[in-house]
Amino acid sequence: MSRSVWQRLPLGLVLLGCLGFWACGESRLPFVGTYKTAEPIANKGHIELVLKDNGEADWNWVDENRSVKLKWRVQDGRVWLYFKEGVILIGTPTNGSKILALNISGEWHEGCPVEKCIYFTRVK
After folding, report:
1. Residue 58 within any structural domain of the chain
2. Is residue 8 a part of any domain in this protein?
3. Number of alpha helices (DSSP H) and beta strands (DSSP E) in the chain
4. Given this model, what pLDDT does residue 86 score?
5. Does the reported pTM lie above 0.85?
6. CB of 87 within 8 A of CB of 104?
7. E strands, the chain, in order
8. Which parts of the chain have pLDDT scores under 70?
9. Closest Cα partner for 116 from 99, 101, 100, 104?
10. Which of 14, 33, 51, 59 has the fewest C-beta atoms lying within 10 Å of its C-beta?
11. Would 51 be classed as within a structural domain?
12. What is the average pLDDT score of the chain?
């Protein structure tokens, strides 16, 4: 019996490796950095979004000295932000990922409706 386990081990390792590669998604590297809103949001000032290379991020209300931790990934060339509370925001990069338009409409749109977008500009 232990012989059959050892015979199947390489196949299991290959499948595990493929699953790990698939789960990583697209490269985050082009989007890693610090972004800041172009305009103040909801009379609460600017938001700073820090995307880290390990898939973690910080959403900082600069003027209120508040911060929220979140996760992020890249899929189909878009940046997906996952908040702990279950909120998912999808960002569409433009201008060589120097501008990130986040859709806050609550509905799926191919792009980002202008009146329901938060625009971030890359600062670092």
Report:
1. yes
2. no
3. 1, 8
4. 85
5. no
6. no
7. 33-37, 47-51, 56-61, 66-75, 78-83, 88-94, 99-103, 117-122
8. 1-25, 107-114
9. 104
10. 14
11. yes
12. 80
